Fold:
Amino acid sequence: MTVAFLETVDLTCERDWRVLFAELNLTVNLGQMLQVSGPNGSGKTSLLRLLSGLMQPTSGEILYQGVELRRQRHTLSQNLLWIGHAAGIKGLLTAEENLAWLTALQHGANAEDIYQALERVGLKGFHDVPCHTLSAGQQRRVGLARLHLPNAPKLWILDEPFTALDKQAVADLERHLAQHCEQGGMVIFTTHHELQHRPSQFTELDLGQRAV
Ligand SMILES: Nc1ncnc2c1ncn2[C@@H]1O[C@H](COP(=O)(O)OP(=O)(O)OP(=O)(O)O)[C@@H](O)[C@H]1O
Structure:
């Protein structure tokens, strides 16, 4: 029997005495894109934080390559790229410095890789300015440039990655996420917008349909 890369078993999440979802069973395998959708407050961010090991479930289990996630924290931290719904960068650092420290504990990145990644997200010439001087969409792009670095982890968990991006950047990011999956990576993400580019292995989980 093949073991799923990531699996939830009867996963239940309660916050502020309210059950957001109960007994959720899902699997994510190599090459798969999972879109978590649902209305505001339905628990999308909470689910992504659980899958990233940033929160503990109320009950149930998360298995990472067949082993309970809390026993796999180190392996997961090396194989997961998490981007929350804020840009996730330091305003006083430059784009280049942000990418250098964001990757330092994982795969690392050299200066040339960082320039190229920033160029891929349309930030050529902005590598050496403090990020607080960039627009919201540009700051978002700095965080997302991590998705263009070589040796990026296989599993990407992204909370509202399209926020603040213009139309062209949204289309480029959609294609990049789909391509990552087609090359054997995995993407779990939330968005309120309708995707135009999907990989062959695409599934959607609507937490609104599962409201308890
Ligand atoms: N820091 C927190 N402390 C306590 N309860 C929280 C916290 N964050 C969220 N919640 C509760 O969890 C519920 C789900 O929040 P969550 O952010 O997971 O929803 P969401 O589906 O991602 O919403 P949105 O579409 O607005 O981003 C909220 O309605 C709130 O009651």
The chain has six helices and nine strands. The mean pLDDT is 93.
